Amino acid sequence: MAQGKGTKDDPWQLKTPPGTADYTMYKDESKDPPVLVCQVGTTTLLYDLRCLEDLHAMLKAHGDWMELGSADEQKPAKEGTVEAWGRSESNPVGGWYGLKKGLRGRFGMYIPPLMEALGLAEVEHNPKGNRMRAI
User: Minimal CA–CA distance to 46: which of 31, 63, 68?
Assistant: First the structure.
């Protein structure tokens, strides 16, 4: 379970799936749409808050492990990965869950550990090629 309450004053304390970097996340429901604020060092990324429910539903329907496939916005995402789904026109928001132009990628890096901390998913923690599945 992640430490923190998921608020700006007490954000979730998380680690990337390989365990190589620390970052924080919190909910900001005052934004439209409500967002997850992801702070990685001095970089702030924003993701549509509904991604948690949508990704959980997709993984439940998928029914098995799915590769994370994290990639920067400027790089193509490997087909069939969580990252590809997080920017696909066929997902529930019809495109990117990342909301900050230029920093919309890395969905497959930063959302899965939060899903695991919230008890929604199981995530592998290998040096490379990690996968996740719904709980």
Answer: 31
Q: Whole domain around residue 44: which residue ranges?
A: 12-134
Q: How many structural domains comprise the chain? A: 1
State how far the alpha carbon of 83 is from the alpha carbons of 1, 5, 53, 93, 114, in Å.
23, 26, 16, 14, 15
Q: Is 3 among the domain residues?
A: no
Locate tokens 């290998």: which residue? 126
Give dist(CA 98, CA 105) in Å, integer: 6
Q: Pick the closest to residue 28 from 12, 6, 45, 13 (CA basis).
A: 6
pLDDT digit of tens for each residue in the chain (135 aa)? 568 899 999 999 999 999 999 999 999 999 999 999 999 999 999 999 999 999 999 999 999 999 999 999 999 999 999 999 999 999 999 999 999 999 999 999 999 999 999 999 999 999 999 999 999
